[in-house]
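In this notation, each integer encodes one residue's backbone shape. One such record reads:

___
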Amino acid sequence: MKSVIYVLTALGVIGLAFWAYRENYATQAVLNDTDKLRVQIRTTHARLAVLRAEWAFQNRPDRLRDLAEWNFERLQLLPLHPDQFGQVDEVQYPAPDLLPITNPVDVSSMNAEDKL
């Protein structure tokens, strides 16, 4: 009887060791993937910072003004002035559409009994 318990215990320990071995390698794989993702995120953040700097450089007001002057014949862009803008209360919004009445009921010809 004791030998059966010893064999079962040994098999249990071997099974747990095999499980722990597999879990260790699975954990290592996930950690490697996480490190790769962190590197990708850092690279993407650096690239985004460069793109934002380039965007700010390209959208300098003096550069845009010069481009508008150089291409005036083709684009005919003029500088904006404050008097070209309107106030919010000057905006006319369209009136809402009226809902169509598809099933009219004539209430003037109904009796008091019909109304209940």
User: Anything to note?
Assistant: The two ends are 89 Å apart (CA to CA). The mean pLDDT is 89.
